[in-house]
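Quick question, first post here. What does this chain look like in 3D?
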Amino acid sequence: MVTRKNSTKSRGADKPPASKIKIEDLRTYVRQHATNLMRDDPNITSVGVAYKVVGGLTTKDLAIRFTVGEKVSAQGLGPQGLGRELPKTIDINGVAIPTDVVERSYKPSFTTVALGPREERKARVDVLKPGISVGGRFVEGGTIGAFVRDRTTGNLVLLSNWHVLQGPRGSIGDAVVQPGLSDDNRVDQNRIGTLLRSHLGRVGDCALSSVEGRAVMSEILGLGVSVGAVGDPSLDDPVVKSGRTTGVTNGIVKALEVHPRIDYGGGISEIVGGFEIEVDPAAPPADGEISRGGDSGCAWMAVDSAGNPTDVMLGLHFAGVDGARREYAVACFAVSVMKKLEVEPLGSVSPQSLMALEAQALTDESLGYSAGFLSFEVEPPTFVKARRDDLASLDGSNELRYRHFSVWLSKSRKYPLCVAWNIEGATFKRLKRTSFRIDQRGELEMHQLTNAIYLSNPFDRGHIARRADLCWGSPAEAKEANRHSFFHTNIVPQHEAFNQSGNTSDDPEGGVWGRLENTVFDSENPHRLRVSLMAGPVFGRQDRRFEQGGETCLLPDEFWKIVMYRDESDSSERAYAFLLTQRHLLPAGLAPQGLELEPWLWARIGLRDLQDMTGIRFGRNVLDREVPFTSAQSLDGSPSLKLMLSQADYFLLS
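> Answer (accepted):
Ran it through. Tokens below.
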């Protein structure tokens, strides 16, 4: 047994008995002094509040409990030995509180686990729920703890640990995947969102992820309850959790204000606050393990007098005990975690109710392309009968409205025929990317390509309405537009060398589509930018069939874009049309044989020629404001009026 000093403060006859002090006073003391109590002694693995153990039996006497990696005799203590002597009592508010020393060390529950038989907790699922595998792009994985509401945006978000969703190598904005890497390493295919916020420290080990592209059910797997409230645990409270590795296990709260020092690897060691849980002897797990690697991030829920799980979350699991004779787990306080991350309980959410909430948000009458955005009316496009018959519809309309843009979606191609949008430079917001997602309203889901078509090939998910173009307006509007831009209804397969805007040392110019986007976005005075645009792919008869991931699509050779604005330098109202091709970039075996000249990759095209090529009709106000340009005969001898746009012809918006 470790030798401890006899505290002189414990000998005073005038000291009130320890039974007179409140447990809240002990918890406050530990929160304030945990770091100092553990300082300069690597053998101390945690400090907390617990009932004192005497002769292997738990008493009802409160104590300040120290856990140590190894108990040693007085002769084995520093300066060359291990650790230091610990006081027999500690004075708290004039009361001598006894200390207790037990052997215990902790490790985070995120260690690599071997792949086992495929099961719901470890497999990729279409409906996300707490209790299953999740992880950051650089983390082996852990468990979805709960779905909660972000108090800053009102959005549903996923709650788990810092070391599950971020880890030492991660950063805010990284991809989050389901299942975690230890269960499936296909990051691109399994992405469900991005890391939004995180914290690692005395308050807890916790993080949030956005959720996009999958349905959600808030009911915890195996428990049948959702997180509807949070509470503060007390000693001897029964609790239950549902983890990725050990499933449902029951426990008893045995220590409060436990502050273990955790080595997370990568040079990160942190003291994390929480409470300790022991196996419930009335409901022991079959293998004796209350938690294992992969359980990190799961929610510890309160249990009622009948032994049933309640909807009250008490803790967020983040560590297990290493090398102990008995099984223990450690959890952050749920109240502290939610306060720190600025989230709140969400209650019961099903896939149907989540879809209903999103569908309701997409019925806002202010959504969609605005024809009256400029000083002249820019009418929405119309379509020849063959194109019109191919358009998907929702509530009787072919125009799918999103924040700042509208989409006309081809059912046969499963990507947009045309997108129209507005740009207001005065209220631009710089926002991080989110995740691609399916618009699940009505029958739209069956008319969209999915992420599977973009795996292991050079094709990007190419935005027609550029994401950055749409991020304007109030902060809430900009965030909504950013999120809406990632619906697959706005996405077409584009070769990466055609789509990406460059601005890197390896590719300073980037693809022609990206360069055209930058010409609009990087105008001389972007804060004064006010533009309406329309764009889409050209549905060509020679477009080639492409199969990937169980999906089939026709790859468009060419894309078009119309830019409309009022030039404030001379009050002229202008419209330009452009035609761009990715034909020369298509993979071997798909590209046609014949002459391909790069100077013709970026060209002006007449609006009436574009109408004939696409089957789309543009309004009279657009046609009347087309800026004239020199005719040129195309290489194939057709009467198209396309002409390579020289640097001098770039439209610069003042």
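The longest strand covers residues 309-322.
Residues 1-13, 503-511, 588-601, 631-654 have pLDDT under 50 and may be disordered.
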